[in-house]
Hints:
By secondary structure, this protein is of the alpha+beta class. The chain has helices at about 5-10, 15-30, 110-115, 155, and strands at about 45, 55-60, 70, 75-80, 125-130, 135-140. The strands form three sheets. Strands 1-2 form a two-stranded antiparallel ribbon. A hairpin with a 6-residue loop joins strand 5 and strand 6. The longest helix has 16 residues, at about 15-30. Mean pLDDT is about 75; it is low at about 40-50.
Amino acid sequence: MSKFDNFLLSLTEDQKKALVSSLLSDSEEDTPDTPSTPDDEMKDEYDFSEGERGRFVEEKKPAKKNRVTVNKDFSVIRESSVGGKTPVKAKKNQWVDTGEAKDEEFDPEHFKKLGITERVRPEKVLQERVCHVCGRKFKIDPDLVHGEFIRCNNCVG
């Protein structure tokens, strides 16, 4: 059994009649060159979004400033909106600094008792190198030395 057959079996008699009448009325409607009218905006549809299968819903769309009409031959008719571009105007800043939220469980005395963590790793040993461009001696971290043509900070640029 196809999905369409399952769909038809799930419809009530009233829904089947509405489906048949809508299919027959579509073939007897206006020609494709005729644009849709504002009355077409309010039409009956089946709403499957809520999980209730086949619930008949009458839906009204809100009026828009820029009306766009799409004909049956997919040609688009746009009614221009009044206004166009408008400049941006500065307004008063409404943000108020209320400070940060205080942590009620925070105890500064506890952290003062802990003290400062001591440095465990040894201090970096810098290498003494000669600049490839100016010949001046300078100290540099060995992790930053790549290749044999080293330049000092003045000659790098």
